[in-house]
Amino acid sequence: MTKIILWAVLIGPLLTLIFLKKETLRRYMPSALFLIVLNTLFYQIAWEYNWWKEDGVFGWDKVVNIPWNYVAFPVMIIWVLKFTFERFWVYFFVNLGLDIFFSYIWYPLEFKLGLATGEIKAYQNLLILTFLSLTIYFFQSWQEGDGF
Q1: Quick one: residue 50, left, alpha or beta (phi over 0 = left, psi -120 to 50 = alpha)?
Q2: Taking all residues of the chain, what is their mean pLDDT, rounded to a whole number?
Q3: What is the pLDDT, as a whole number, of residue 148?
Q4: Are 25 and 13 within 8 A, CB to CB?
Q5: Is 28 within 8 Å of 78 (Cβ atoms)?
Q6: Confidence band (pLDDT; 50, 70, 90) for 55?
Q7: How far, in Å, CA of 109 to CA of 116, rounded?
Q8: DSSP assignment, residue 68?
Q9: End-to-end Cα spacing for the chain
Q10: What is the band of 61 on the pLDDT scale with cuts at 50, 70, 90?
Q11: What span, in angstroms and rounded, lies between the C-alpha atoms of 36 and 39?
């Protein structure tokens, strides 16, 4: 069952990209790639300090979860930026809602299903996700030449 969930997280978000215009994908892809870099660093820190450890689809993705880090989160940020970028407060509250969902609903569910283990508290995870979302917004603003 857990592998089915992980495969759905790997394939499902990719399928949604066919609904995006090429220009939109090109516009927000740098932010998605930047998110991948930041998330990879956080996953490595989390592994070291036992904040969280998630099962992967493949045997070699022990430290950084491939479906979440390299597919779901980047695709999600592209969609969120598409609908909310240039409206900071809308972006902030949409991301805050998603971050609350992941921190207080999804991650505890992952722990119950045996998809993840670790010692991070929900509020700590919420702070990390909120920091990442703000960093991505400012990166996208900088990318477009709007500054901070």
Answers
A1: left
A2: 91
A3: 56
A4: no
A5: yes
A6: confident
A7: 9
A8: I
A9: 44
A10: confident
A11: 5
Percentages helix, strand, coil for the chain (3-state, rounded to 5) are 75, 5, 20
Q: CA 19 → CA 25, 35, 50, 76, 145, distances in Å?
A: 10, 21, 38, 13, 27
Residue type, 63: V
Q: What are phi and psi of 43, to 5 degrees?
A: -60, -40
For the chain, give the number of residues: 148
Q: What angle do the packed helices 22-49 and 122-143 form, to 10 degrees?
A: 140
pTM: 0.89
Task: Read off φ and ψ for residue 54, nearest 5 degrees.
Answer: -115, 145
d(CA 67, CA 36): 11
